[in-house]
Design goal:
The protein is an alpha/beta fold. It has 15 helices and twelve strands. The structure holds 1,3-dihydroxyacetonephosphate and iron/sulfur cluster (SF4).
Length: 332
């Protein structure tokens, strides 16, 4: 791993504007630790013709300091189809990097930490999907993008939290197999007449929120707006004023400009979004995704210096998975 870098006057000058943006969410005492990495990563990115795509759950020094684009899973997948960079560095979890590779078989796709997994993606395998298809012959399979390439290869069409209802309805069938998130699946089922056959997967971060906790927020701050991610359990979603993908949540704050808001999702979201909306008061519950937090500035720098860790997908699997991801992007 790279040794700690020095905070020189040149580094301070090169990163001053970035720090001014994030000063409310990154203490001044921490900036000398981040700034040398931010400066060097931004330099090396240009030399390598690399693009850095970051999920909304990345820490503020990544999201605001080095990302060329940040967004939800759908936005990251769409951006991965548009870039002419030679190297894509995906700052997020493994399934996101795999999706970028499926969409760009000829590009080098790197993830700064290959162990950045996801409890939803690891809840199901391609063999499980084949068994489901045997059990429900002819019923189309809709897979959340939070799945491995093996699972996507067995899938008719992918979806994200931002387009799940639209995707399910696009198939024109009475029933769909929806996997792996049972809570997102139930949320979709409430909004469509299509029968949704569920898998028992959950997100280890969102399943920890409780309805009682949300009621406490409302009791303590009656004018608060509660916005929640659809990976939360159904009783939690019932307490929310708005339910949407991570980017849907950002759009809600942008359009509604609530005085006070609580985002029922991963910790870094509120910090990242608070930078953009200084007039909104964010109450910050903290459920951390340990997988997203594996990505750090020193690991991103290591990726740029060594071109590790390359994400590879078996071409036969990638080819089959491509159809499912592409169909999703076409209808979104
Ligand atoms: P979004 O697509 O809403 O960003 O969700 C991805 C994710 O992993 C949420 O936990
Ligand atoms: Fe997976 Fe949940 Fe982490 Fe998102 S927050 S990457 S769904 S474990």
């Amino acid at each position: 791993m790279t040794e700690a870098l020095a905070y020189t006057p040149e580094v301070a000058a090169a990163t001053r504007d970035i720090y001014e943006r994030v000063r409310d969410v990154i203490p001044e005492i921490e900036w000398p630790v981040h700034a040398p990495y931010v400066a060097l990563i931004n330099e090396l990115k240009v030399e390598r013709n690399a693009i850095l795509l970051a999920h909304n759950y990345q820490t503020p020094e990544i999201y605001h300091g080095v990302a060329d684009y940040s967004g939800d899973s759908l936005g990251l997948a769409a951006k991965a189809t548009e870039t002419d960079a030679d190297v894509i560095i995906l700052c997020g979890v493994h399934f996101m990097a795999e999706t970028a590779k499926i969409l760009n078989p000829d590009k080098k796709v790197l993830i700064p930490d290959p162990l950045a997994g996801c409890s939803l993606a690891s809840s199901i395998t391609g063999a499980d999907v084949r068994l489901l298809k045997e059990r429900y012959p002819g019923v189309p399979v809709v897979s959340y993008v939070n799945t491995s390439a093996d699972v996507k290869a067995e899938t008719d069409i992918c979806c994200t939290s931002g387009n799940a209802v639209q995707v399910v309805e696009s198939l024109g069938t009475d029933r769909v197999i929806f996997l792996p998130d049972k809570y997102l699946g139930r949320y979709v089922a409430q909004q469509t007449d299509v029968e949704v056959i569920l898998w028992e997967g959950t997100c280890e971060v969102h399943e920890r929120f409780t309805a009682a906790e949300l009621r406490d927020y409302r009791k303590a701050t009656p004018d608060i707006k509660i916005i929640a991610h659809p990976e939360c359990p159904p009783d939690v979603l019932e307490e929310a004023d708005f339910v949407g993908s991570t980017s849907g949540m950002i759009s809600y704050v942008d359009k509604q400009r609530p005085e006070r808001v609580v985002m029922i999702t991963e910790c870094s979201m509120s910090d990242n979004v608070a930078v953009e909306f200084p007039d909104v008061d964010f109450i910050r519950p903290c459920n951390l995704c340990p997988h997203m937090k594996r990505i750090t500035l020193p690991k991103i720098l290591h990726s740029l210096q060594t071109l590790e860790y390359e994400v590879l997908v078996d071409p036969v699997i990638a080819n089959r998975a491509y159809g499912a991801v592409k169909r999703m992007l076409e209808i979104s």
